[in-house]
Amino acid sequence: MKLPFLASFIIFLFWLTYELHKHKNDQAKADKAFWDKEKLAEKSFARDLDTLDYIQIPLHLFPYDLFSQNERLQEDQKTLQSLSSLRIMNFSGLTNTELKLQYGAANIDALTEYDHNFTLLCRLIYNLSKALVESGFDKEALFLLEYAISIQVDVSGCYYLLADLYQKQGEPHKIEALIEQARQLNNLLSKSIVRNLRKSHPADDSLHSS
Known about the structure:
The protein is an all-alpha fold. The protein contains 9 helices and no strands.
Protein backbone atom coordinates (compact mmCIF):
# COMPACT_ATOMS: atom_id res chain seq x y z
CA MET A 1 0.00 0.00 0.00
CA LYS A 2 2.91 2.33 0.63
CA LEU A 3 4.29 2.20 -2.93
CA PRO A 4 1.10 3.44 -4.68
CA PHE A 5 0.82 6.27 -2.12
CA LEU A 6 4.47 7.22 -2.60
CA ALA A 7 4.07 7.17 -6.38
CA SER A 8 0.99 9.37 -6.16
CA PHE A 9 2.78 11.77 -3.83
CA ILE A 10 5.76 12.05 -6.19
CA ILE A 11 3.42 12.72 -9.14
CA PHE A 12 1.68 15.39 -7.07
CA LEU A 13 5.01 17.05 -6.29
CA PHE A 14 5.97 17.08 -9.98
CA TRP A 15 2.58 18.60 -10.85
CA LEU A 16 2.84 21.22 -8.10
CA THR A 17 6.37 22.17 -9.16
CA TYR A 18 5.22 22.51 -12.77
CA GLU A 19 2.23 24.71 -11.82
CA LEU A 20 4.36 26.96 -9.61
CA HIS A 21 6.95 27.32 -12.36
CA LYS A 22 4.23 28.07 -14.90
CA HIS A 23 2.64 30.68 -12.62
CA LYS A 24 6.04 32.29 -12.03
CA ASN A 25 6.67 32.50 -15.79
CA ASP A 26 3.20 33.90 -16.47
CA GLN A 27 3.66 36.53 -13.76
CA ALA A 28 7.06 37.47 -15.14
CA LYS A 29 5.55 37.92 -18.62
CA ALA A 30 2.72 40.02 -17.21
CA ASP A 31 5.18 42.20 -15.28
CA LYS A 32 7.33 42.70 -18.35
CA ALA A 33 4.30 43.60 -20.48
CA PHE A 34 3.20 46.14 -17.86
CA TRP A 35 6.59 47.83 -17.60
CA ASP A 36 7.04 47.86 -21.37
CA LYS A 37 3.68 49.57 -21.67
CA GLU A 38 4.55 52.00 -18.88
CA LYS A 39 7.85 52.93 -20.55
CA LEU A 40 5.98 53.60 -23.77
CA ALA A 41 3.41 55.68 -21.90
CA GLU A 42 6.11 57.81 -20.28
CA LYS A 43 7.40 58.73 -23.75
CA SER A 44 4.00 59.57 -25.20
CA PHE A 45 3.43 63.08 -26.51
CA ALA A 46 1.04 65.42 -24.69
CA ARG A 47 -2.34 65.89 -26.32
CA ASP A 48 -4.15 69.24 -26.36
CA LEU A 49 -6.63 68.89 -23.49
CA ASP A 50 -8.62 71.91 -24.64
CA THR A 51 -10.25 69.73 -27.29
CA LEU A 52 -11.79 67.24 -24.84
CA ASP A 53 -15.55 67.05 -24.38
CA TYR A 54 -15.81 68.07 -20.74
CA ILE A 55 -18.84 67.36 -18.59
CA GLN A 56 -20.99 70.44 -18.11
CA ILE A 57 -23.06 70.81 -14.94
CA PRO A 58 -26.63 71.93 -15.75
CA LEU A 59 -27.06 74.19 -12.74
CA HIS A 60 -30.74 74.74 -13.55
CA LEU A 61 -31.44 71.16 -12.45
CA PHE A 62 -30.24 71.90 -8.94
CA PRO A 63 -33.01 73.37 -6.73
CA TYR A 64 -31.09 76.18 -5.08
CA ASP A 65 -34.17 77.46 -3.29
CA LEU A 66 -34.29 74.18 -1.37
CA PHE A 67 -30.65 74.30 -0.35
CA SER A 68 -31.27 77.24 1.94
CA GLN A 69 -33.87 75.16 3.79
CA ASN A 70 -31.40 72.38 4.54
CA GLU A 71 -28.35 73.40 6.53
CA ARG A 72 -26.66 70.07 5.81
CA LEU A 73 -26.75 70.76 2.06
CA GLN A 74 -25.47 74.32 2.11
CA GLU A 75 -21.85 73.18 2.04
CA ASP A 76 -22.66 70.89 -0.90
CA GLN A 77 -24.14 73.88 -2.70
CA LYS A 78 -20.88 75.80 -2.35
CA THR A 79 -18.88 72.81 -3.59
CA LEU A 80 -21.22 72.42 -6.55
CA GLN A 81 -20.83 76.03 -7.56
CA SER A 82 -17.05 75.69 -7.37
CA LEU A 83 -17.14 72.51 -9.46
CA SER A 84 -19.19 74.17 -12.19
CA SER A 85 -16.19 76.32 -13.14
CA LEU A 86 -13.74 73.39 -13.23
CA ARG A 87 -12.93 70.78 -15.85
CA ILE A 88 -14.67 67.47 -15.28
CA MET A 89 -14.04 64.17 -17.07
CA ASN A 90 -15.07 60.58 -16.43
CA PHE A 91 -12.05 58.28 -16.76
CA SER A 92 -13.55 55.33 -14.88
CA GLY A 93 -11.95 52.03 -15.83
CA LEU A 94 -8.77 53.59 -17.24
CA THR A 95 -5.42 53.12 -15.51
CA ASN A 96 -2.83 55.87 -15.24
CA THR A 97 -0.74 54.04 -17.84
CA GLU A 98 -3.67 54.01 -20.29
CA LEU A 99 -4.33 57.70 -19.65
CA LYS A 100 -0.71 58.57 -20.35
CA LEU A 101 -0.74 56.54 -23.56
CA GLN A 102 -3.88 58.28 -24.76
CA TYR A 103 -3.28 61.83 -23.59
CA GLY A 104 0.44 62.09 -22.85
CA ALA A 105 2.49 61.57 -19.71
CA ALA A 106 2.82 65.32 -19.11
CA ASN A 107 -0.97 65.58 -18.69
CA ILE A 108 -1.42 62.90 -16.04
CA ASP A 109 -1.72 65.32 -13.10
CA ALA A 110 -4.36 67.39 -14.88
CA LEU A 111 -6.28 64.28 -15.95
CA THR A 112 -6.23 62.94 -12.41
CA GLU A 113 -7.68 66.23 -11.20
CA TYR A 114 -10.46 66.14 -13.82
CA ASP A 115 -11.36 62.60 -12.82
CA HIS A 116 -11.35 63.57 -9.13
CA ASN A 117 -13.78 66.37 -9.96
CA PHE A 118 -16.06 63.80 -11.58
CA THR A 119 -15.97 61.58 -8.49
CA LEU A 120 -16.81 64.57 -6.32
CA LEU A 121 -19.70 65.53 -8.61
CA CYS A 122 -21.11 61.99 -8.45
CA ARG A 123 -21.07 61.99 -4.66
CA LEU A 124 -22.67 65.43 -4.51
CA ILE A 125 -25.50 64.39 -6.81
CA TYR A 126 -26.21 61.30 -4.75
CA ASN A 127 -26.22 63.22 -1.46
CA LEU A 128 -28.44 65.93 -2.89
CA SER A 129 -30.85 63.49 -4.51
CA LYS A 130 -31.17 61.46 -1.34
CA ALA A 131 -31.88 64.61 0.68
CA LEU A 132 -34.50 65.72 -1.85
CA VAL A 133 -36.31 62.37 -1.65
CA GLU A 134 -36.22 62.47 2.14
CA SER A 135 -37.77 65.96 1.99
CA GLY A 136 -40.52 64.86 -0.40
CA PHE A 137 -39.12 66.42 -3.59
CA ASP A 138 -39.21 63.28 -5.73
CA LYS A 139 -39.59 65.12 -9.04
CA GLU A 140 -36.51 67.28 -8.45
CA ALA A 141 -34.51 64.23 -7.36
CA LEU A 142 -35.59 62.30 -10.45
CA PHE A 143 -34.36 64.99 -12.85
CA LEU A 144 -31.06 65.18 -11.01
CA LEU A 145 -30.55 61.41 -11.00
CA GLU A 146 -31.40 61.06 -14.69
CA TYR A 147 -28.72 63.62 -15.44
CA ALA A 148 -26.29 61.63 -13.29
CA ILE A 149 -27.03 58.44 -15.21
CA SER A 150 -26.53 60.27 -18.51
CA ILE A 151 -22.92 61.07 -17.54
CA GLN A 152 -22.39 57.47 -16.34
CA VAL A 153 -22.17 58.23 -12.66
CA ASP A 154 -20.37 55.41 -10.85
CA VAL A 155 -22.15 55.69 -7.49
CA SER A 156 -24.39 52.62 -7.17
CA GLY A 157 -26.81 54.44 -4.87
CA CYS A 158 -27.86 56.73 -7.73
CA TYR A 159 -29.10 53.75 -9.74
CA TYR A 160 -30.94 52.19 -6.81
CA LEU A 161 -32.55 55.49 -5.81
CA LEU A 162 -33.69 56.24 -9.36
CA ALA A 163 -35.11 52.72 -9.74
CA ASP A 164 -37.07 53.20 -6.52
CA LEU A 165 -38.46 56.48 -7.85
CA TYR A 166 -39.51 54.86 -11.12
CA GLN A 167 -41.26 52.12 -9.16
CA LYS A 168 -42.90 54.65 -6.85
CA GLN A 169 -44.21 56.68 -9.78
CA GLY A 170 -45.67 53.63 -11.50
CA GLU A 171 -43.03 53.51 -14.25
CA PRO A 172 -41.20 50.23 -13.59
CA HIS A 173 -40.65 49.74 -17.33
CA LYS A 174 -37.99 52.47 -17.18
CA ILE A 175 -35.89 50.27 -14.91
CA GLU A 176 -35.03 48.08 -17.89
CA ALA A 177 -33.36 51.03 -19.63
CA LEU A 178 -31.63 51.88 -16.36
CA ILE A 179 -30.22 48.36 -16.19
CA GLU A 180 -28.91 48.67 -19.74
CA GLN A 181 -27.16 51.92 -18.81
CA ALA A 182 -25.64 50.29 -15.73
CA ARG A 183 -24.35 47.46 -17.90
CA GLN A 184 -22.43 50.00 -20.00
CA LEU A 185 -20.40 51.26 -17.03
CA ASN A 186 -16.69 50.78 -17.51
CA ASN A 187 -15.91 49.61 -13.99
CA LEU A 188 -16.22 46.67 -11.60
CA LEU A 189 -19.51 47.95 -10.16
CA SER A 190 -21.47 47.33 -13.35
CA LYS A 191 -22.40 43.67 -12.78
CA SER A 192 -23.18 44.27 -9.12
CA ILE A 193 -25.54 47.16 -9.91
CA VAL A 194 -27.34 45.16 -12.60
CA ARG A 195 -27.70 42.15 -10.30
CA ASN A 196 -29.05 44.24 -7.41
CA LEU A 197 -31.51 46.12 -9.61
CA ARG A 198 -32.92 42.87 -10.91
CA LYS A 199 -33.15 41.47 -7.41
CA SER A 200 -34.83 44.56 -5.94
CA HIS A 201 -37.29 45.07 -8.81
CA PRO A 202 -38.33 41.62 -10.08
CA ALA A 203 -41.97 42.49 -10.84
CA ASP A 204 -41.29 43.45 -14.47
CA ASP A 205 -40.35 40.28 -16.39
CA SER A 206 -38.52 42.38 -18.98
CA LEU A 207 -35.87 43.10 -16.37
CA HIS A 208 -34.68 39.53 -16.65
CA SER A 209 -33.96 39.65 -20.38
CA SER A 210 -30.28 39.52 -21.33
